[in-house]
Amino acid sequence: MTKTTAGLHYQPYYCEENIWQLCQNPQYADGQVLFISGYGEYFAMLCQQGGEGKGHLVCWDYHVVMLHAGNILDFNSSLPFSTPFEQYFAWSFIDEGLLPEDLIPMFRVIPVGEFVESFLSDRRHMKTEQGWSAPPPPWPLISQSSSNLSRFADMRDLEFGEVLNLSEILERFG
User: Fold this and answer.
1) Quick check: helix, strand or coil at residue 61?
2) pLDDT for 62-81, tens place per residue?
3) Cβ contacts of 11 within 8 Å, gap of 6 or more
4) Are the C-beta atoms of 100 and 37 separated by less than 8 Å?
5) Catalytic: which of 23, 47, 68, 74?
6) 47: annotated active-site residue
7) Is 18 within 8 Å of 9 (Cβ atoms)?
8) How would you write the pLDDT of the chain (174 residues) with one tens digit per residue?
9) Three-state SS for 124?
10) What is the DSSP letter of 131?
């Protein structure tokens, strides 16, 4: 089901599109998009709606949030939609030393304008032979025929934005 958070578009399981839609609002033009992924198939995260409370682990293949005015905007967090950066990171991520290497999150930091101009998705990653893996959003596709979503999620691909580990992102923005 689509919901609106204070006039903002949201569709479950479409975090990249939710944030792309948020980027269309001039109020957020000076923000940074954080594309979170890892070097393994999944990375570990806490305080997500898919988890069973604050202390329960969720493993995402990727997740997308926005950093704006010192706050993280995350439609999927069990924390408030807009949470101060340091609080969000303290509650949402496990110390890297406690995780196997393939579950450690990495962060692609991309200015809003660059994300809007360079990101393409035709939702192909959500289609299966049986149909949609989750109902699609009601708004138009970002791209009718191409997708570079996998390149944004691949932290070895350095074309878009800057890739930082947890320590580096905390140092930069904390």
Assistant:
1) coil
2) 999 999 999 999 999 999 99
3) 2, 17, 18, 135, 136, 137, 138
4) no
5) 74
6) no
7) yes
8) 344 466 789 999 999 999 999 999 999 999 999 999 999 999 999 999 876 655 678 999 999 999 999 999 999 999 999 999 999 999 999 999 999 999 999 999 999 999 999 999 999 999 999 999 999 999 999 999 999 999 999 999 999 999 999 999 999 998
9) helix
10) E
15: annotated active-site residue:
yes
CB-neighbour burial class of residue 135 (10 A; exposed 0-12, middle 13-18, buried 19+): middle
Instruction: Choose the catalytic residue: 9, 15, 23, 68.
Output: 15
Domains and CATH numbers, the chain: 3-173 (3.10.620.10)
- Predicted TM-score (pTM) of the model is 0.94
Tokens of 119: 């990101």
Query: What is d(CA 4, CA 150) in angstroms, rounded to the nearest whole number?
Result: 27
Residue 153 and residue 90: Cα distance in Å, rounded?
23
Q: Out of 9, 23, 47, 63, which one is annotated catalytic? A: 63
Cα distance between residue 138 and residue 159, in whole Å: 30
> Among 10, 12, 11, 67, which residue's Cα sits nearest to residue 36?
67
Q: d(Cα 165, Cα 172) in Å, to the nearest integer?
A: 11
